[in-house]
C-alpha cells in the first residue's frame, strides 16, 4: 500500500533560534520515512529569510539541499498565516507541522503516515516531550499543565486514539482538511514574542469536524518530538501569563464555534483531570515529597488565570460584536501546481475511546 507523500512545514520568526531551526530540519532529514519536502516559512524577518535562503539555497557555499525550501510568510504576521503559507506551497498529500525549537524522533513521519491508511482520517497528532533548560522539571510544575510549554499533558489518553483536536506543534493534516476549512484562522494564535496565545489548531479541527462529520482525528503517542523549554518558560510568571492567554484564546474559539463545541474537552479536563492533580499534589505534600504543595497550588492558580482570561476575552468579543479573527484563504502566490494525488486504501484506527486534546 503506497504511503502518502509527507510535506513538513516549520515556521520560524527569530534568529535567536538559529541552531534550533537547523536541528529541527536535520531531524526531518533523518526520518525513517523520508519527507517529500521541508518548507521553512519565515515570519516577516528579512534577515532570517536571507540567512536561511543562503544556508539552504543553491548559491556558493550554501548547503544546496533541494529537499528544503525557504519561504516568506505571504500573509499577516503570526503563526497561523505562516502555516497557511506553508500549506499553499506544499505538494504532498499530507502536511505535517513541527515547531522550530523541536526535534522529531526517527519514526515520527512513519507513524503519521500509517494512520492515513484509513481514508476517514484527516488529522493525526503526536506526543510532545519537554526538554527543560534546567535539565529537570521544576518541582512545582504540574504535568497536567504541560500544554503551557507546548507539550503533551497528563490527562490525554495513551496509544492511538480519537480526539477532538490535535496540538499544532506536532501535528499533520490531510490536504483535504485545508480544502474544506480554508486554512488556519489568522489573529488567534502566536505572533512572535507577543502575548502567548494559541488554540488556532483547536478552532480549525472543530470547523473541520463540523464540515466533515465523518472525519476522524487521531493522536498517536508513538509519533514523538522533543520540544525545548527555555529558562523563561520554567518560571511561574510565564506559567500564569500563558494560562491567562489560553483563556483569551478559548474565548475566541467559543465565539467562533460556540461554547459547547469550543469547551467540551476543557470541561472534562477541568472536572476530572485537574481535581485528581490537586489531590495528587496534596497527597505528596502530606508524604513529604518535594513540590507536592506547589503543584497543587499551581493547578489552582492556572485555572484561575485561564478563567480570568476567558472572562476578559468573552467581554471583549461581545464589545466588538464578534470574534477578532478571520479564516484567510491560502495565499495563491505560494501555491504550487496541483499535484497528482494517490488514493489510500481503507482501514480503521486501533481504538477510539472518548477523549480530546
Report on the structure:
The protein is α/β, with parallel strands linked by helices and 357 residues long. Helices cover 39% and strands 18% of the residues. Helix 5 (175-181) crosses helix 6, helix 6 (200-211) packs parallel to helix 7 and helix 7 (236-257) packs parallel to helix 10 (292-320).
Please state the CA-atom Rg, rounded to the nearest Å. Answer: 20 Å
End-to-end Cα distance, whole Å, is 30 Å
Q: What is the tally of helical segments?
A: 10
How does the helix and strand content classify structurally? alpha/beta
Count every beta strand, where a strand is a DSSP E run of 2 or more residues.
11
Give the helices and strands as they follow along the chain.
Answer: EHEHEHEEHEEEHEHEHHHHE
Helical coverage, percent range: 25-40%
Q: Tell me the β content.
A: 15-25%
**Sheet with most strands:** 9 strands, mixed
- Unreliable stretches, pLDDT < 50, 5 or more residues? 59-64, 336-357
Mean pLDDT: 86
- Bulk shape: globular
